[in-house]
Amino acid sequence: MAPAKLHSDDVLDVATASNYKDFNVRHYALDLDVNFDSKSIDGTAILDVEVLRPVDCVTLDIHTLEIKKITQLYNGNVLDFDIKPFAAYGSSLNIKHKFEKEDSVKLEIQYTAPSTAPGVCWLEKEQTAGKKHPYMYTQGQAVLNRSFFPCVDTPAVKSTYSATVKVPKGLRAVMSADEWTDGEEPNVFKFNMTKPIPAYLVALAVGDIKSAKIGPRSRVWSEPVKLEAARAEFDGVVEEFISIAENLYGPYVWGRYDLLIMPPSFPFGGMENPCLTFVTPCLVVGDKSLTDVVMHEIAHSWFGNLVTNGNWSDFWLNEGLTMYAQRRICTSTESFGEAYTCLEARTGLALLREQMDDSGEDHHLNKLRVVIEPGVDPDDTYNETPYEKGFCFCSFLQSQVGSLQKFDNFLKAYVEKFKYKSVVGEDFLQFYFEYFPELKEKENELELDKWLHTAGWPSFVPDLSAGDNLTKPAEQLAAMWAGEKDTENVSRDITGWPTYQVLHFLDQLMEKSNLPMKEISDTYKHISKSHNAEIQLRWSKVTLKNDYQPDFPQVRQFLEEQGKQKYTLPVYKALMKSSETAKKLAYEVFENTKDQLHVNVRKRVHEILHSD
Fold first, then answer.
1. Which 3-state string (H, E, C) describes 355-402?
2. What are the strands of the beta sheet with 172-175, ordered from one edge?
3. What is d(CA 406, CA 264) in angstroms, rounded to the nearest whole number?
């Protein structure tokens, strides 16, 4: 019996050069030799291909890869190929051969990923936490893994993979796979991912990496100097989060769930590589206050990894559902709870509000479904919209069905129906009305098309009043510092405030003018000197808006110590909107740190500095 047809089957991903509708890659077998001296990977990729219709060419995605030889296994035929430009972010590798429908062939591709490959990040030992050994990691999302290995680089296609990785003496390799074994030779590691995943989720890191147990199915991996702090930060909480998620959305299918604490230049808060989430070291603050980021990555195990957006225009299916699931998990935890979750959600919506104020609400990237034109890098469309507007859309759909549990049960059924598949918005919404047929007659009233295709602020925001006992004191304190009426008796003491209450206070300060910055900085030295990156981000923005130059050294230090996109880009934008002194600081810091930044972050910062 043929599988049911999906709407995603008829949608073309314009960000891939491959003719992926003509064939299916069932498995990638990678053999990788990691060379730190040349900053290159010598690789062999064997693709197990099932031909779906007669073709004269199999086209794959590559970017900067040096292709040496392509062989059809079993008969040993060396195949002709050519490479043609596709977009700024990649080329097409065209393998010339007559393939018949239902052919099952294995194509062996010998290649090198050079030092210029943007998805393979090489760090000198000075750029690591331990400063003794170099480090390498890959970052595939959205379209960068085509510079790591020849592949069908679209979320529409899922494959299993295996890898044998040879690394220099004293280093170890880790990958996003459920089965790990040491090779027969020293410094050789073997991996096998038995569940099908899109190419962007294949991930590798190599460095001076050790591990510690943090749960019955979890370990944390880190450079040795960070390991104990990382173990203390995440011990116990990961299993709590996974167990709550399983109760809400069904079994965790990936076996192990490990965390890899990345070097400071890692551009994201977390990357949900299955079985091995890559996370920023900014989360290791000593009080577990930012572990909700790990909740988000755990939620991706259902939304994004198990059921995946069929193209990058529907990125909200990955991120909006994950934000909703994260906050459902957070509400159910002992350490966070409903009030804290509502406060965190307000903080997220404040970021969305700031983004829309900055870009203008009618900017096309403020649509839930973004139209990505051919040649446009999907990474250039990244912003808060799929996360926070996507969360609001999920909350709106939940509001139509009544209880939270009904919507949880719907999402569990959605995961079960579409697991290991890639879908688009129409698949999700069609199933929504199949699951809740009583809503079908009011489909037009729900204005779903407007939700997907109209830019601007979400037309529905969930009730977050459960957080009022945390938000109102923060708002009153900000008003007091701004000298507003009837705030003279507001206490300045914020001892014991949870992190997100402090963040809300700082968000409120951002909306005020003519602040007594020296007094505020002196009163809250634990804020102005904080090592919590979320606090540092907001204090930097308050400092720059008010051109409080005595705290510019903290801004500099923040940009020098980390390279996370979410933190780095807003601070550079704030620098360029501030005084001439601030602008000079921006150019100076970027010149000193640009080689430490991920290539995408470096490009975005350069655009900010030269936007005029």
1. HHHHHCCCCHHHCCCCCCCCCCCHHHHCCCHHHHHHHHHHHHHHHHHC
2. 120-123, 135-138, 204-207, 172-175
3. 41
Cα–Cα distance between 281 and 263 in angstroms, integer? Answer: 7
Of residues 597 and 538, more confidence is placed in 538
388 Rama sector, left if φ>0, alpha if ψ -120 to 50, beta otherwise: alpha
How far is residue 352's CA from residue 605's CA, in Å, rounded to a whole number? 20
**Global model pTM greater than 0.90:** yes
DSSP state of 458: -
Share of the chain above pLDDT 70, in %: 100
Q: What is the pLDDT of residues 207-264, one digit of tens each?
A: 999 999 999 999 999 999 999 999 999 999 999 999 999 999 999 999 999 999 998 8
588-to-296, 537, 573 alpha-carbon distances in Å: 34, 19, 14
Measured distance CA(105)–CA(92) in Å, rounded:
20
Per-residue pLDDT at 405 exceeds 70 = yes
- d(CA 490, CA 477) in angstroms, rounded, equals 6
Residue 127 near residue 265 (C-beta atoms within 8 A): yes
Q: Would you call 179 a catalytic residue per the annotation?
A: no
User: pLDDT tens-digit profile of 302-338?
Assistant: 999 999 999 999 999 999 999 999 999 999 998 899 9
Length of the chain: 612
- pLDDT, tens digit, for every residue of 528-577? 888 899 999 999 999 999 999 999 999 999 999 898 888 999 999 999 99
Q: Quick one: CA dihedral 137, 142, 148, 151, positive or negative? A: positive
CA–CA gap between residue 308 and residue 195 (Å, rounded)? 13
Distance CA 464, CA 95 (A): 55
Measured at the CA of 598, the angle between CA 595 and CA 602, to 5 degrees, comes to 70
Contact 273, 221 (CB under 8 A): no
Would you call 144 helix, strand, or coil by DSSP? coil
Using CA atoms, how far apart are residues 560 and 138, in angstroms rounded to an integer?
A: 22
What are the residue ranges of helices labelled H in 445-551?
448-453, 468-481, 499-510, 517-523, 525-528, 533-545
What strands lie across the sheet with 90-99, from one edge to the other?
A: 55-62, 90-99, 80-87
The arrangement of strands across the sheet holding 210-215 comes to: 210-215, 218-222, 258-261, 276-279, 270-271
- Indicate the pairing of strand 188-197 with strand 159-166: antiparallel
pLDDT tens profile 279-306: 999 999 988 888 988 999 999 999 999 9
- Helix/strand/coil for 501: helix
* DSSP H or E run through 42: strand 40-51
Q: Judge if the upstream peptide bond of residue 142 is cis by omega within 30 degrees of 0.
A: yes
CA torsion sign for 599, 604, 608, 612 is positive
- End-to-end, the C-alpha distance of the chain in Å comes to 59
Catalytic residue of the set 108, 223, 233, 297: 297
Which 8-state DSSP code applies to residue 557?
H
Give the Cα separation of 350 and 221 in Å (integer): 33
The answer to whether 138 and 120 have CB atoms below 8 angstroms apart is yes
